[in-house]
Write a structure and sequence with these properties.
Elements (H helix, E strand, L loop, with lengths): L1 E4 L4 E2 L24 E6 L12 H7 L23 E5 L7 E6 L8 H8 L3 E11 L2 E10 L9 H18 L10 H4 L10 H4 L1 E6 L5 E8 L4 H11 L3 E10 L2 E9 L7 H15 L10
Antiparallel strand pairs: 1-6, 2-6, 3-5, 3-10, 4-5, 5-7, 6-7, 8-9, 9-11, 10-11
Helix pairs in contact: 2-3, 3-6
């Protein structure tokens, strides 16, 4: 079942070629809480300034006023769906696609789109579709100043944190199922993910010119930027990819290459070991050495 959503003047670039659909203008705080977020993104391979401190990343996320008590936790007996946020850089060559899902609890997300506009982004296309997993809100976003998709890892992470922050504010029950709930939420997660158990790293051949890197690990603020930093520090280029936030977990899929060639086995091992070492020590500071 598809619902059309009109093109909105908000700064964000989505890679979605679906027809524009008209979305209900009901505000987020009037719709039952719940959301899923997902996304794929294309990254610039040139050097970039990395946000190392969590505080910097959190500060980039745009805040909106807290929802009224009417949107507070509903019936505690209700099963809270798993929030999902997807940032897709692969689907559309000219826009960054963002998808948000939280069961059937999301509204039109007008406040979220306005928050993205404050990051210097435009929402050029938006639609909503329903399936067995719930209601999916999908946006195509671009940068206001260039009209192109977002390629800066820091800005992509700011988009992710902004969406999650708004989700927690308008649907407080979602914070118990998000790693960001520890930093931003009213209800913190009851269980913490064991990084050693949750972390999975796989590298596959994806043709003669690139390889596919898959990383699954415990989510935390700044993770997207840190993953790209680790990969590029060993002279591996990140061509494009997708970064998904699924509850307490983060799942990244990057197309990578070394000198425009797929990674050979020894380099795959170096990359895998570097990522595993870093992800198991997420709070280690450089000053501690």
């Amino acid at each position: 079942m598809s619902v059309t959503m009109a093109s909105l003047g908000v700064g964000t670039h989505l890679s979605d070629n679906n027809n524009n659909n008209c979305i209900s203008k009901a505000s987020e705080n009037r719709v039952p809480s719940g959301a899923l977020i997902r996304g794929t993104f294309r990254l610039a391979t040139k050097p970039f300034s990395v946000l190392h401190k969590r505080q910097r990343l959190s500060s980039m996320a745009t805040n909106t006023p807290r929802a009224s008590s009417a949107t507070a936790l509903e019936d505690e007996s209700d099963t809270v769906p798993t929030p999902v946020v997807i940032i897709d850089q692969d689907t559309d060559p000219s826009a960054t696609i963002v998808e948000i899902t939280f069961g059937d609890r999301l509204g039109a997300l007008l406040d979220t789109m306005n928050a993205l506009k404050n990051l210097g982004l435009n929402v050029v296309k938006a639609n909503v579709f329903l399936d067995s997993s719930g209601k999916h809100n999908k946006f195509a976003i671009t940068k206001v100043d260039t009209g192109r998709k977002v390629e800066d890892p820091e800005l992509l992470e700011a988009i992710r944190l902004t969406i999650i922050n708004n989700l927690i504010q308008y649907h407080p029950e979602s914070s118990a199922q998000l790693a960001m709930g520890v930093a931003f939420g009213i209800v913190q997660p009851e269980q913490q993910v064991d990084v050693d158990v949750a972390t999975r790293i796989r590298i596959y051949d994806d043709g003669p010119e690139r390889s596919l890197l898959y990383v699954e690990t415990a989510d935390r603020p700044g993770l997207l930027v840190d993953l790209v930093k680790i990969v590029t520090e060993i002279n591996i280029d990140v061509k494009s990819g997708e970064f998904d936030t699924e509850g307490l977990l983060a799942k990244a899929k990057f197309h990578v290459s070394y000198k425009d060639k797929a990674l050979i086995k020894p380099l795959q091992l170096v990359l895998s070991n570097s990522l595993r070492y870093f992800l198991r020590r997420p709070t280690t500071e450089e000053s501690s050495f």
